[in-house]
Amino acid sequence: MKQVKKVAIVGTGVIGASWAAFYLYKGFSVSAFDPAENAQENLKNRVSIYLQDLFELDQIADFKQARNDLLDKLHFCENLVDAVKDADFIQENGPERLDLKLSLYQEMTENCPVNTIIASSSSGLKVSDIQQSSKHPERIVLGHPFNPPHLLPLVEIIGGEKTTQNYIQDAFDFYRELGKKPIIIHKEVKGHVANRLQSALWREAFYLVSNGVCSAEDIDIAITNGPGLRWAIYGPYLNMQLANQKGFKTAMHHLGGPMMEWWGDMHPYQLDENEIEKLDQETAQFLEKIGEFDLQGKRDEALIEILSMRKKLQLP
Amino acid sequence: MKQVKKVAIVGTGVIGASWAAFYLYKGFSVSAFDPAENAQENLKNRVSIYLQDLFELDQIADFKQARNDLLDKLHFCENLVDAVKDADFIQENGPERLDLKLSLYQEMTENCPVNTIIASSSSGLKVSDIQQSSKHPERIVLGHPFNPPHLLPLVEIIGGEKTTQNYIQDAFDFYRELGKKPIIIHKEVKGHVANRLQSALWREAFYLVSNGVCSAEDIDIAITNGPGLRWAIYGPYLNMQLANQKGFKTAMHHLGGPMMEWWGDMHPYQLDENEIEKLDQETAQFLEKIGEFDLQGKRDEALIEILSMRKKLQLP
């Protein structure tokens, strides 16, 4: 893979801005483009906050000057061509609409170097679809982060039908060298991996509340005082390994029967406007009980603490 | 509710021992019974380790004498009757078999005070079934913890058909005053709440690996570097609230469509011996890569750190 000095951020909403902060912090020059109104100003403000998170994660207290130096390496461009024309790596964060992606990728691939990897942050679309009308589609990959990307290490990578293996491996190595935790997905499935896992939990969380089993608050209490605490430490496989002193297989022999019974009791669940309204009212009640509380700020503070703890204990 | 001074622990395996440590630490006298061989010795050893966790959670460094004093209040009884006859609260952790539970509850309820609450740690059985042949079944509730109970705050409470509301409320207040995070479940569903949520995630985690989408290691990386980090902070409802700057309803309008597509793509999945074998081999590969590592010790260390962080940030 060629040496990356300049990263282009295409689409500078919440996800794009978070990626921009991450790449700046890792020492890259960043060129950015977004056609939205006030995009430049919003980007600068967001990146400034996200950079602070990153300094705090590394326990650097006196970061004012360093932050200003990094912000000097952020260039907002007047148009897409200027942003991508000499970029060594492109992180794309456009809207989740295939028609928009198709024209965006066409314009990007006609104007950036032929061997520049383009990684899409798309959470829903398939690379095989996105790359259809691109020049040199072999270097287009999924580079799907988890929100907020400047803090959460996960990046999901997969190629489309026209992507070649070397670019997938290059993208994997690139993210890993920057300290991310990339995984390579081997089959294109809807929602990739983490969103499928997450939405499986959401479905049952919605079903239980919708059917009066418990409140939205109860669901959140159950997760954050039960299994959620363990999922920040180990994933489903290592947790199953620990569910029995003899390890995974014995745990599965004990738990498999009951689990299949629970699965059999999980009824199909569909969202519609009425359902969303009902769940929103449940959430509103919970929020009212919480009262004044900076949910997002505290979340990011907590994320930084958990990430530091994971590093300290060298968790796998 | 009557004042609780003495708690009986019936069944002193891993869960029972963890409960015993918790109640001792909270100042109760604990009488315990289990018919298994070496039960008394195993209990003492486990309680001793778990007490250390609790002292560490409260950042008490010099705890040797205090621990010995607490251990003096643990009484292993020769038979069930002695353990429960003057107990003010009973935490039952017997095997998950209805026939065994029925005779156990019959003997307990014939020999303990009539208004002593009996809380079952059962993860699979319904209270309505357990309480069938009990004397004064109105005081029998579910008090389902999450492993390890001495550290994880969640307790799921529900009554059976014959349980009266006052005992459910008393159990809730009792656990809450001890610093637990109890929730009251309003309908008896298989697996209660947290196990259903957890098993929904496990199902998709098994499905994806079984179908070659990614490895067991990838699943665990995805969770512990993505959504799992957030679930230790907020549950599914508050995370959805933060998924859009305008809050829950707008987030659902954006994510609802894609989520329903992912749900539609989640195929029924069944476990059998072949599947368990396949998943076990996947897990074994992951474990081999991790190498020498005290999984359980590190998990509990990490749990203590996350719980302290949650307290410090006063997370809801």
TrEMBL record, chains A, B:
Naturally occurring in which organism (per UniProt): Acinetobacter gerneri DSM 14967 = CIP 107464 = MTCC 9824
Site (Important for catalytic activity): H144
GO molecular-function terms, A-Z: NAD+ binding; oxidoreductase activity, acting on the CH-OH group of donors, NAD or NADP as acceptor
Descriptive protein name: 3-hydroxyacyl-CoA dehydrogenase
Domain (3-hydroxyacyl-CoA dehydrogenase C-terminal): residue spans on this chain: 191-242
One record GO biological process: fatty acid metabolic process
A Pfam family assignment: 3HCDH
Cross-referenced PANTHER family: 3-HYDROXYACYL-COA DEHYDROGENASE FAMILY PROTEIN, 3-HYDROXYBUTYRYL-COA DEHYDROGENASE
Entry keyword set: Membrane, Oxidoreductase, Transmembrane, Transmembrane helix
Gene3D superfamilies linked to this entry: N-(1-d-carboxylethyl)-l-norvaline Dehydrogenase, domain 2 (1.10.1040.10), NAD(P)-binding Rossmann-like Domain (3.40.50.720)
Domain 3-hydroxyacyl-CoA dehydrogenase NAD binding stretches: 6-188
Keyword check for Transcription regulation: no
TM segment ranges: 7-25
